[in-house]
TrEMBL record:
Lineage: Bacteria, Pseudomonadati, Pseudomonadota, Alphaproteobacteria, Hyphomicrobiales
Native species: Prosthecodimorpha staleyi
UniProt name for this protein: Uncharacterized protein
Superkingdom of origin: Bacteria
């Protein structure tokens, strides 16, 4: 694929301190919650830098006009962005936003392909940021094996009662679900390369290793202190030892590509048989609700074998073509000149 346009970090003095805006693009079920739980444990410090983290839960009820849409959006996205930027600057020099809706939603089964709104949304954000040459925007997205991704999207749509909106999976054109095309649209809109990571690597890397890898991909310094979080979005390691010790074999919850919903339900089922009723009611159940948002799982969706095979072909082609993005990192933050 063609090389994306280059957007070098602005280093000239503008009177404002350099500000690094790291945006984790939340493709469906690609570990966004894992990112949020682990990065949130940094408690405002990355090395010697003050650090701000905003996750999807922080956005609910307070939509940002510069990327949200619909009746709740404010009339002036430029003013909305300026207000948020002023708050972010007071709290630190580095901001990492992890949100599922920055590139659109999973309601994309109308023939328009993979995240048709992604280019428009990213272009809007980059336009707003371009008014501040001192802002260095860094983009990172996790991609996922296409058949697993599509089956999970269909399951979520069905779980939300949107069956009438679903297209017949056998009629889905695999060519409309190419990660390479989505990456090209995002890079064209942003005017800079997009760093990628494969979702399948998340369980393999685990808690601290995964977090440091993600921060390194953004070019951010290693944290001086980092709470150890486990393969279930922090749930296992955060359990009281007296409870965790009673659960034999955590291996089943480490399997690749298991959704957080699936893992949460499996963990709940295992724990229910290893703790007494009082411990379940007062310790375990509130804990699971906190970490898994009281999810109850999603209905299974099995793709037609021929469709799954075709999607696997596009995935293999995409992954080979995007190998340079998957291995890339943003430049270290220390390379950004201070005024």
């Amino acid at each position: 694929m063609t090389e994306p346009p280059s957007r070098e970090p602005e280093t000239r003095r503008t009177g404002a301190a350099p500000f690094v805006l790291c945006l984790h693009l939340g493709a469906h079920r690609t570990g966004t919650t894992l990112v949020q739980n682990r990065i949130a444990a940094l408690h405002g410090r990355l090395g010697g830098e003050r650090f701000v983290f905003v996750q999807n839960q922080d956005l609910k009820g307070q939509p940002w006009a510069f990327w949200c849409r619909g009746r709740k959006v404010e009339a002036d996205p430029d003013a909305d962005f300026e207000r948020h930027l002023a708050v972010w600057r007071k709290n630190g020099r580095i901001l990492l936003i992890s949100a599922e809706d920055f590139i659109g939603t999973t309601a994309m089964f109308d023939g328009r392909g993979l995240y048709p709104e992604a280019g428009t949304r990213i272009r809007r954000l980059m336009r707003l940021a371009s008014a501040h040459p001192e802002i260095d925007v860094r983009l990172l997205m996790h991609i996922r094996r296409t058949p697993d991704f599509l089956a999970s999207c269909l399951a979520q749509e069905a779980a939300k009662g949107r069956r009438a909106r679903l297209r017949d999976p056998s009629r889905i054109d695999p060519a409309g679900f190419r990660w390479a095309d989505l990456v090209a649209r995002i890079e064209a809109a942003a005017g800079q390369p997009l760093v990628l990571r494969d979702f399948a690597d998340l369980p393999r890397l685990g808690g601290r290793a995964y977090t440091t890898d993600l921060l390194a991909a953004f070019g951010l310094p290693n944290p001086t202190r980092l709470q150890s979080l486990g393969p279930l979005g922090g749930a296992v390691d955060a359990l009281p030892a007296r409870i965790a010790d009673r659960i034999p074999g955590l291996g089943p919850w480490r399997r690749p590509n298991a959704s957080l919903s699936t893992r949460g339900v499996a963990l709940a089922d295992a724990m229910r048989s290893h703790v007494d009723a009082q411990t379940w009611a007062h310790v375990v159940r509130p804990f699971l609700s906190r970490h898994f948002s009281a999810r109850t799982g999603e209905p299974a969706v099995t793709l037609d074998p021929s469709l799954a095979a075709a999607l696997d072909e596009t995935w293999a082609s995409d992954r080979a073509g995007l190998a340079d993005r998957l291995a890339a990192r943003h430049p270290p933050i220390r390379s950004i000149a201070r005024p």
